[in-house]
């Protein structure tokens, strides 16, 4: 293989992942040109606050999809867990953390309920979670007695609306926010360097050092610019910290743990996974338990953002989460998908929604655009598989 072929191979080996990043950059650039305030500090902060719960759902959903399953109930679980928190905190006057724990416990029970039917009874996840979507929505109405509950106020309200700022002082910008982002950039650089060294040790192809350094510099510049925009607005959103912890944790679990490898094995070839000793039923059970817990986290964040609970909360959230995963590179047949890709897919959905809202695009048109983007993403997945099979 000559030098040109090596470069081409490195650039195209992960076309799905690199392509979605390029698409994200293009979409951001388009809205930045069409609406001057799109990249303003205030609007960037609003994007983080308004769409964080979709990204949380996408983190769990990508594991479900990688395993070859689907979960249609997460929107209803968001509503139910938010309702439970509201009843505990608002109606019964309990501390905010009791409401959070109650929501997480309900999410755990929901995940165990659905995981049992999928893993040990053998009912397809589509059917189980379709039933769950109806069951948990009905339970939400019962818990709230068909009425909204508000406001939370206090610490609970700050979960999705609060900011950390002023801890290190400020000079027209929040120093603490920039320090946190700088630590994140340093951590990313170290992880990429270790990954590169690992590939070299196993004699795998890597990009040239100049290209590697350029990639790190570009990522660092973009991340620090984003951090600066937040620092001159209201500081570091608390919900962004929660989201960052979840992304890092689940990226490590899916890529560097035995359980993560088992999830990919089950989605890639269930029969082969069973023959290899993978406990398929156990894997399917725990991915639904995990999804239930993450849906409850999203329920807490959403109810905090709305400062209350409504019977209709979380409507269509499951479709946004599923769309984020497929747009981010997950395969419709399972076995393929990454947490990072799902997050980027979710950001694309968030950017499109926010940008179209700023431009005054009707809600009906927004739904059409989102549907077309999802259709194109899945079409690209199918085309890419056919192209790969022809090459082989």
UniProtKB/TrEMBL annotation:
<feature type="transmembrane region" description="Helical">
    <location>
        <begin position="120"/>
        <end position="143"/>
    </location>
</feature>
<feature type="transmembrane region" description="Helical">
    <location>
        <begin position="283"/>
        <end position="302"/>
    </location>
</feature>
<feature type="transmembrane region" description="Helical">
    <location>
        <begin position="96"/>
        <end position="113"/>
    </location>
</feature>
<protein>
    <recommendedName>
        <fullName>Xylose transport system permease protein XylH</fullName>
    </recommendedName>
</protein>
<dbReference type="Pfam" id="PF02653">
    <property type="entry name" value="BPD_transp_2"/>
</dbReference>
<keyword id="KW-0997">Cell inner membrane</keyword>
<feature type="transmembrane region" description="Helical">
    <location>
        <begin position="234"/>
        <end position="253"/>
    </location>
</feature>
<keyword id="KW-1133">Transmembrane helix</keyword>
<comment type="function">
    <text>Part of the binding-protein-dependent transport system for D-xylose. Probably responsible for the translocation of the substrate across the membrane.</text>
</comment>
<feature type="transmembrane region" description="Helical">
    <location>
        <begin position="211"/>
        <end position="228"/>
    </location>
</feature>
<feature type="transmembrane region" description="Helical">
    <location>
        <begin position="72"/>
        <end position="90"/>
    </location>
</feature>
<keyword id="KW-0812">Transmembrane</keyword>
<dbReference type="GO" id="GO:0022857">
    <property type="term" value="F:transmembrane transporter activity"/>
</dbReference>
<dbReference type="InterPro" id="IPR001851">
    <property type="entry name" value="ABC_transp_permease"/>
</dbReference>
<feature type="transmembrane region" description="Helical">
    <location>
        <begin position="50"/>
        <end position="67"/>
    </location>
</feature>
<feature type="transmembrane region" description="Helical">
    <location>
        <begin position="163"/>
        <end position="190"/>
    </location>
</feature>
<keyword id="KW-0813">Transport</keyword>
<keyword id="KW-1003">Cell membrane</keyword>
<feature type="transmembrane region" description="Helical">
    <location>
        <begin position="20"/>
        <end position="38"/>
    </location>
</feature>
<dbReference type="GO" id="GO:0005886">
    <property type="term" value="C:plasma membrane"/>
</dbReference>
<keyword id="KW-0472">Membrane</keyword>
<keyword id="KW-0762">Sugar transport</keyword>
